[in-house]
Each structure stands twice: as structure tokens, then as C-alpha cells.
Fold:
Amino acid sequence: MNGFTKAVAIAAGLVLFAGAAQAQERSATKQGFELPANSGKKILVFRPSISVGAQSTAGMFEPNGEWTEQAKANLQAALAKAQASLGNTVIVAPEAYGEDAQTLQEHMQLFAAVSDAVIQYQFFVGNRLPTKKRDNKNAVFDWSLGKGVADLPGAKDADYGLFLFTQDAYGSTGRKMLQLFAAFGGVSVRSGVHKGYAGLVDLRTGDLLWLNADAEMGGDVREADGSEKRVHQLLEDFPGSTALKAQAVAPATATATATAAGKP
Amino acid sequence: MRALGAGIGLLLASPAAAQQAALLPPYAGVYQPKGVDEIGLWQEADEEERQLAASNLLIRDERLTGYVRSLLCDTVGADRCGAVRIYVIRAPMFNASMMPNGTMRVYSGLLLRVRNEAELATVLGHEFGHYESRHTLTAFKEQRSGTDAVAWMAVLTSFAATYQNVRSFQNFQLAVYGGFYRHGRDQEREADRLGIAYLNRSRLRPQEASAIWQHMMEEAEASASAKGLKKPNFRLIAFAASHPPYAERAGYLAALAAPDGADREDGADRYRAALAPFLGQFLDDQIKLNDFGASDYLIQNLATMGWTGTLWLKRGDLYRTRGNPRDLIAAAEFYANAVKLDPTLAEAHRGLGLSLMKTGRASEAVVPLQTYLTLRPDATDAGMIKMMIPGESK
Amino acid sequence: MKFNTLRVALALAAVATLSVPADAHKLAEKGKVVTVADSKLSITPTRDWNRLSGKVGKHAEAWTLDGEQLDEVTFYAAIEPGEALIRERSKKKEPLPKFRKDMLLAELPELLERTYRTGKDARDFQLSGATPGKFLGRDGVSFTYVVTDADGLTRKGEARAAIVDGRLYMVTFDAPRLHYFDLLAEDARALMASATL
Structure:
């Protein structure tokens, strides 16, 4: 690649491909874990990390308070509805203060570290740890946050804990214009970033029962039905979710879904 | 050094000196964010603050936070300070920051370096100035429109990527990004002007504002010198510098300080008293950063108000850990000074023992090491120290 | 410049933004003796471990079971006097603490602490215990600590160290104090116990 072409490519790449993360969706379930429909389980939803904004022409994230609040409410409702259809109840985690808040935060940080390790070292092709590659072959998914989760606020009244993270940046008008204009010249500009991951934890043992990571999610979380679609995608392959799959709207873009058992 | 500082200040662009300290904006009551961008930024800031409040690195001591808070309120006024929450963070660098929603962070490294209430008030007023002028919001908008322009230009250039066009694009991009950094530095200057305006009408000496930057320059020189590096150029503005150079700030802050404030107090005694319970820990965090020159400079400056056992102890640790033969001799002397001032400083006895051991005076080391064990029978490394004393059972 | 070339160039730039790691991580098989950190230090794992690719330092190597975020055993072998434990970002501007010929065993925990604070941005480091103990068949030091990083995540750590022929040998185990340290400490100690020169 010629020097200055590279310079434009990199400059353009930085600008145009902002947010082009790995186009992978991946989930895994702990070996042997089953959550049959209508078993009446209680799921504690920890304070979700939901961030919604716009994507500027250049790809900068522009936070939008109203959209974020809407999304929080919509996702909460969609989650309750989806779990109810599976026969489970959703409990919102109570507010934590003082030392409880610190312990909860340390657990959230640990969950983020575990998810990061799962995505980096078990899910992502090319960087896998040899022992995790072997686990994939044997359909083993063995991660934990430890028994400390049992003491988190609200844990006593629930069976499982759900961690949720979504980040949405909707392409602004400027971004969409740039996308259109660039297309005339045969240059590809991505519009919108929609990442998410969700994890289910056993509140007695701390074992990670299920993790789903998706770098390109569908569903407009600012709308009620879009949130339902998003929840369906976030809970993709949620244990016992064959019932959910039947109701799900077919996603607009085809994303390769691979469970831990399938990929070498 | 003061004269040199002032000289450098005058050599710089005089425009800074010709400006007035900003007039303080009228207080308009409790502020709520307006507009999509500001509401969004505040909401992000609110989430971040929640996490900050639960952080393991937060210093939750009410006396210290209360003290910093009351100093802020004295400086900017009780009506204004109601909008701010102060968080003191355990972090060894000289820094303080402000989020759009009124979250103010003050790092322990900053508390270690400021010498009196006037200097601390300068920083607090400066940070408050950022908040009052809504700098995050304006910077955000500037960056957005700047990067938008670059994005369009990148696409246009890619349609006809001739050598000329690519060169123009690169220049354009540099100009835009350079503009962001320049804008950021201008915001820092504006915050400085607001800060000195607050200090001018407070009960503290505004002349102390410039002193902060004098000391930072001295510290940087000491650090570079010990590392064998070239003396830093305090007038140079790097392309990506987020703040104006130290010399420039020292210059205009000195010029903008109200002359009639020179007789006011600087609150040094009160500040030292408030910092005292934390000084050992903050100094320890600093000397373990392996920056000999800066650490020695800071210790010696803390000592201008009088050497204490703790200051000698930390100086001993600093020299012992650099560990050259002549450093170890000096360390032994410093530790000896420490125990003279405060015989209960167990770590000083330990340090003295170790330094003597390493300079061929093992027999002299026995007494200080035994003293350490007597003072601290359940020391975490008691086993290691016992092993070094001949005849001691494990 | 040909138009197609530019399109290819932009596509490549897109691919380039996807991180592709250099070398794969290797397996350290249970029962199989291996030398680590480019030295004669031999370790016999009692279970399968992963050897992380990527250089921690000239004479340092890291192993993990689940990822370094969650558990990490680091081997420092044959560190010479005047050498830092880990790779320095900038030797002149941000020098790391160096091992010294005349360092006492009692000063080794301090060397690790200062390395963590300078090279790994640790914000708090508390030594919880340091006792004499055998390592590599010689008199050494065993110590434990608690360290908090710049993000506020707190880890517990345990280490063994000894000075052999004027060179430093040390093995450390770091893991979050929540769950991971207690879970894997025995496995890490087994690695340390198996170390021979």
C-alpha cells in the first residue's frame, strides 16, 4: 500500500470505521444447566449499564439523556415480559448504599473482568487459551464470580442474577448523509453502533450459567417493540428459551450464531 | 527562582498579562442542564459519579473532605458551592478535575504538593471555573463539529486521492485537531482567570496562585536532573498539550493577583494540620514511584516548615531504595534523625538497621533491628528481620 | 492513484482495525517439565496451564488458567543486578526500580511493590506477611500482599523469591480477592513448589 494512500486510509478508517468491532455474536451455557419453562424462578436484575445516544457524522458518541431513560424503562419492561413468558419472575435489584455499594461494585467489576476474559480467551477465534479451546471442544463452560454473590442486596430473595450491558449509538442525520454520499463513491461508511452483552449467574454458587455477547444488535431500544426485539437478541439461547425463539421477530441482518459446543 | 519565574512570564506573549482577571458571573440559582447535549453529558456524569462513590480508591474521611469542601465554599461562596460534590481520590499525581454535573475530584498527589490553603483554593476555584463556564459542553460541541468537518473531507479526498489532495487533507486534519488542543488550553486559561478572580475576593493571598506553577517547574527540573535528562523547556507548547505551559501560567497568575491581597494570610498552618493524618501515606505513595528527584524535592519543601520524624523516615526510605553506596550512608543518617525526633517510629529503626547492614556495619545494625521487633512484635515481616539478627530464634 | 486500489486500501484499513494477535498462547501440560522466562528455571505443572504469549519482560513469563484479569502466575528468572522486573516503557523518562546486587531478602517485597506502583499503576499495596522460606532449595522469602489497581479492582498476591548467584528468581500469583485467589492459591503454590534450577 502506497504511503499516502495508507495515510488517507488510516485517517478515513479512523473516522469512517469508528465502531466497526468484531462482527460476532456468541453465547455459551454452563454444561448441564437447564432452566425448564415454568419452573417459577426469580431473576434479580442488577442495575443494568444502558447507554443510548447518537453517532455524530465523524463517529463521536453523543449521549442522549431522554433516549437512555426511555431505553432503561423499555428494556426493563421487555425483560419482565420475556421472562414471564418463560415462567420466571424478574426482580429489580434494590439500591445499595455505603459498604454494600462498594461490594456490589467490586462484583460488577469482577463480572466485567470475567466477561472480558470469556470473550477474549474462549469466544474469540485466534486469541483463545489452549485450555479454553479444549473446553469448547468438550462443551464445557466453567466460569464463576464466587459465592460472595449470595450476600449482594436482593440476592436472598432470588435464584439467579442477571447482568446487562447495552450501548447504542444511532447514526445521526449527518452520519447517514455521509454514508449515502460516500456510497456514491464506492466507499463504505458504517452507521450506528449497537453492542450488548448479558450474563446469568447462580446466586448460590456464583457460577456463570450463561453469557451472550453481541457486537451488532438489532431493535430500536427507544421504542417499546424495538426493546422487545433487543431483549430477544440479548437473551438469545437463554436457557430454556425455545419458547422465546418461536415468538422472536427474524433479525434484519444475518449474524452468525455459534454456541460453545459448535465452534472448535 | 521567583524572579526567574517572573522573567520568563514577561518574555512570553504579553497578551496574557494584559488581560484582566475574569469578572465573576452573577449567581443564577440552582442550575439544571438544558438541551440534548448537556442533558446527555450530565446523565453520563451522574452514572460515573455513582461508580465513583462506590470506588475502592475513594478517601472517605469526613474531616478531610469536609475541610476541602469548606475551603471551596469560602472561596466561591456558599451559594455556588452547593452545586459541587467533592471526592478525594487516592492517586499520586498532581491533578484535580470537574465533571459537568458538579462532581469534583481532588487527587492525593495534589494535596501532597500544595503548601497552604491559598494554593489549594486556587485549584478549587479553577475547577469550579470549568464547571461554571460549562467547558465540557463547549469542548464537546467543538469536537463534534470539528471531527464532522474532517469526516466529510476524508470522504471527499478519497474520491480523488491525488498527492496534492491528500496533503491538503492532512494539513486540514492537523489544523482541526490542533484547534481542539488550543481550545482546551484556552479553556484552562479561562478557568485560571476565574480562579484568580475568586481568590482575589477571598480572605487568602492571591499571590500564592502563581507559586503552584513555580513549584511544579522546580519539581520537574529536579526530576529531570536526577534522571539525567535535559532541563525541561517550560515555555514550549506541545501540539497536543492540554494545558498552557507552567511558565505561562505562573506569569499571568502573578500579574492578575490583586496587589492589595498581598498582606492576607495563606492558611499554611491550618492546611498542614488538616493534611497531617495523611501526609505519611501520601508521601509514601509518592516515593514509591521511583522518581528520585521529584520526591526529594517534595520532601525538602515539606521540611521548610520544620523536619518531623515522618519526613526523615520517608527521606531515608527514598535514599535506601535508590540504594547507591553513598545513598545508604545518607539513609542511615536520615533514619537516625527520625528516631531522634520520634523514638517510636518503628519503620525508622528498621530502615536504619537495613542501611547499616548494607554498609558493612552489621554489628551496629542489631540494636535498631531489635528495637523494631520490640516496638512491633507482630510486624508483617518480623520473621525476615529476626533472621537477620544473629542468635535470634525464628 | 487508481480508484480500485484505494477501495482495497480502505477495506484493508477496516480489517486492520480488528485486532489480530501475533502468537498463539501455548499449553503447559500437566506433568511435563518446562523451562520458563528464557532461563534454566524449570517448572512441573500439576495441572494444565496456559502460557501467555507477549513479553512481560526480558526475563519474565506469565501463565494463566482463565485469563490474566482473573488469575496470573508470573515467573521472574535470573534478573541481573541493574535490571527491572518487567519491560520498561521508557528507560530514561519512566525508569522502573531495579534489582540491586546488595538487596536483602527482606527488601524484595518492596521491589515488587515499587514495580507495581510504577509499572502497573497500582494505587495501593499492603504487605500482609513476609517470612523466611525455602525457594529453589535455598533460603528465600515468602510473602503475601493486597494490591489495588487504578480501576479500583483489588487483588491478593503471594510470592516466593530467592537470590541465586547474585541473580533474582521470583514467582508471583495475583488474583482478585473475590473468589479467584482462594480458589487457585493451592494450584499456584504447587507451581512454586515445583520450581527448580
The first strand of chain A starts at residue 25 and ends at 29.
